[in-house]
Amino acid sequence: MAVHAQSLTQMNRLMSQAATLFLMAAGAFALPPTVKLSNGVNLPLISAGSGGKDSSWTYTSFKAALSAGFTALDTAHEYGNQDGAGKAISEVNRTSVFVETKVPGCLVDGSMLNPFKCYNETVQVFENNLELLNVSYVDLVLIHYPPLEVFVTRSCGNLTGSCQMVRAQWKAMEEFYSSGKARAIGVSNYCPSCFDCIESTKVQPMVNQLQYHVGMGPDPQGMMSYCKTKGCIVQAYGSLGNPPLDPRDPGPSHEILYGNLTTSIAKAHNKSTVQVALKYIVAQGIPTVTKSGNPVHLAEDLDLWSWELDPDEMQALQAHRLPHGSPSFACSK
């Protein structure tokens, strides 16, 4: 009986993939919706990611993502794959794709020992980003994480010098923005104490990219509501429960892929558990980053707006508490 049920599940999956391929060929997927940032720039609700992948994979995946209908690509200096991303971007109309990159936090290589060094390094890394991506501007650039000392103290502060470095780095970000080299600027893995360091600056972060997925509740550590009070949009990474900074790269959470809750909801809508996990995020108006090298899976990732989770399903997903996660791997206070 178990084997028979497994065969039926596999058959349903194949039928769903066949339907997806047909829709891809027919061009039936509409452009992903967007959310408006505080400065009026529109950020697509779903982006193709490339964390932990090399340049060759990134080029192939991004090319497939753009062909499937993705309009946003997410990369970072530390991914070491921006030349691959740049190659994919160069093959399409630049204005048709939202390009997002990240610069590392201060002290990433031990050379940013003071605010002046941190500022200069941030400028140099960003200019290198533009060169590798082969673009004159990006649509969004983020500071990837707070200064590395924050990983120990779990909070930004003046006594440790981390606030001074945050301010120096944000000065560089404001300059990228005012020069037109970045249409929008933001942060990632920032907690309230790090926002406090730049509360008096002219331009405030427009995005805070945080870990967010099924199992973390609707407002983990109050970060969703906090960012809303700051006029800052949360963008989700680790949307399938992938543990950040895990050198083993275990991939998506087993609970999300095969757990009873996501599986039952997926069956009810004839969708995959991955689609359920992504739908849960975007249904809240939260943009997310997902990653795949499979064209069919990329197309499925875009099929999130032809169906809806019912209120009971949303409530069950919000109440679920596996897999665990923290909005930031860097700080928590």
The global form is globular
Question: What is the C-alpha radius of gyration, as a whole number of Å?
Answer: 20 Å
Quickly give the CATH architecture: Alpha-Beta Barrel
Quaternary structure type: single chain
Number of alpha- plus pi-helical segments: 13
Overall mean pLDDT stands at 90
- Catalogue the unreliable spans: 1-9, 22-27
Query: Would you identify the CATH H-level superfamily?
Result: NADP-dependent oxidoreductase domain
Q: Return the structural class.
A: alpha/beta
Largest sheet: 6 strands, parallel
Number of domains: 1
Q: CATH topology, anyone?
A: TIM Barrel
Task: Explain what you see.
The chain is globular. Mean pLDDT is 90; it is low at 1-9 and 22-27. A six-stranded parallel β-sheet has the order 4-5-6-7-8-9. It has a two-stranded antiparallel sheet with strand order 1-2. A two-stranded parallel ribbon has the order 3-10. The chain has a single domain (44-319), classed as NADP-dependent oxidoreductase domain (TIM Barrel, Alpha-Beta Barrel), CATH 3.20.20.100. By secondary structure, the protein is α/β, with parallel strands linked by helices. The chain has helices at 2-26, 55-68, 82-90, 115-133, 150-153, 162-179, 192-196, 223-229, 254-258, 260-269, 273-282, 295-302, 311-319, and strands at residues 34-36, 42-44, 46-48, 72-74, 98-103, 140-143, 185-188, 207-211, 233-237, 288-290.
